[in-house]
Amino acid sequence: xxxxxxxxxxxxxxxxxxxxxxxxxxxxxxxxxxxxxxxxxxxxxxxxxxxxxxxxxxxxxxxxxxxxxxxxxxxxxxxxxxxxxxxxxxxxxxxxxxxxxxxxxxxxxxxxxxxxxxxxxxxxxxxxxxxxxxxxxxxxxxxxxxxxxxxxxxxxxxxxxxxxxxxxxxxxxxxxxxxxxxxxxxxxxxxxxxxxxxxxxxxxxxxxxxxxxxxxxxxxxxxxxxxxxxxxxxxxxxxxxxxxxxxxxxxxxxxxxxxxxxxxxxxxxxxxxxxxxxxxxxxxxxxxxxxxxxxxxxxxxxxxxxxxxxxxxxxxxxxxxxxxxxxxxxxxxxxxxxxxxxxxxxxxxxxxxxxxxxxxxxxxxxxxxxxxxxxxxxxxxxxxxxxxxxxxxxxxxxxxxxxxxxxxxxxxxxxxxxxxxxxxxxxxxxxxxxxxxxxxxxxxxxxxxxxxxxxxxxxxxxxxxxxxxxxxxxxxxxxxxxxxxxxxxxxxxxxxxxxxxxxxxxxxxxxxxxxxxxxxxxxxxxxxxxxxxxxxxxxxxxxxxxxxxxxxxxxxxxxxxxxxxxxxxxxxxxxxxxxxxxxxxxxxxxxxxxxxxxxxxxxxxxxxxxxxxxxxxxxxxxxxxxxxxxxxxxxxxxxxxxxxxxxxxxxxxxxxxxxxxxxxxxxxxxx
Length: 671
Fold this sequence. Notes:
Radius of gyration: 36 Å
Order of helices and strands: HEEEEEEEHHEHHHHHEHHHHHHHHHHHHH
Shape: extended
Helix content: 40-55%
Largest sheet: 5 strands, antiparallel
Oligomer: single chain
């Protein structure tokens, strides 16, 4: 080949390489650009609506409800199962593996979740729409048949035909918008996560990079050099993030979530999605996951309460000492009231703290008036003539009478002067403690009152306000998502032990902090009384609708109480069998397995003895229930004493944290 021919071949090769390099960077707004959906299929990447740090600001992101505690965004699916109906079927099932990838399975496979999946998404024919559903556990046969017959009733509609026409659709933003819709990959959130990771692991990261540098110096191969450059770039990104967000060192984004936020894993997942999509147009498919939101809310509320308890433990001494020091130097109406009530206890005087404040206010005003009276008398004959001085004094005396009138209304006339003297001495002692003296506390000499006041007046109240505001927001969100959780439990077979065990775990994960406060107990009491189809409403009935129906019927409840009061075990079982069906009887036995009290297990199990004995001196309570107006305490058998925490919220022998008492008919118990 001649030199010219060689040059021409090289030039053509360079041009071809340049064209291939720039081919994927088409300008979509160009009238001659290729259509992004030119392929026969569209690649969908299933995600879920979840709580985030910042809202997903995209028109296609349309969660079914709004939240007050956190904005809504998209996250990867939690481990579980995904069901797909496309065109004319058949129904397909995918396991969401622990690594976030999908693995297709047979519909009748067991509930074992794989560690690793095969793909981030699914390629589907763009000419036909699809429907998707996420579930924590596999669907039983009847539920799958329901999806086949009515896919649009329970499943998310994925409008692939609209995606083919407009590139995106409701609940289906494109992958190119990942940094706007994915909770962990929004730029500011991502930087804060990197800053938090650097604050915790920066030293170890630097040691790793230095080790790569030493290896590069010892063996400067292209691979070692590239590894060091990549690691140095990776570390520099975290250092810049830490410098921009120093506040992230204390708490990283998403620490309130029940599913840990993992920016590197989300990055790798998105990269894999783009790789799996290849030349296909790719969109996210956002599915509802109300159970995941409830798990997040409960997890944050547990952390909030634990953090508040830790703060109280750390600052209890400070609060006690600060309150004591303030009692030495600050006047308080409650103290005055207690002082006078004790001093004159034989006179049947009951002064309230508000009246004590009235006495103090009166004393302060009288001091000013007496100073004014003294000034007028000193100015008599100089600034004022006698007539003017008398007129001024008359005004002062009138105001003195008006100032003392409220106090005379609740202090007996014969004690008025003595009370004034006692309160003056009380106030002098406060002043002496503050100013110091041989026999006094000399507070200012040993205590930084400015810092003390700042903590008591600003820092501590701010902490309590923050805790209260978070609880208010979390309970508001619980009120939104509790009635929605049926979307994740509608398929439950209450007679299936596996489903019962799952409900036990679900109740513990979603409700353990529900009743940590009075507001939450009242909220859940109202929910339990509702006719919502969600399974968590049956938490006090061992997941048995038939047992709930029996307890809510006054006649049947009386029959239950009569059966349980029989002394003969065989007669008890026979009477219960007439009132309850087999499923309700098994549910009652499950309750007995988990709790002690009036419905002890020995009353129900063949060969058992008498019911467990109550503590001496403790009165026996009747069987409680919604129909009877009693309190069904989570983890307590009806009839158990309210102060006892026995068993678990879940009535199948689970242990752990659980809600406090809830009165399912009238009231919520004290938290």
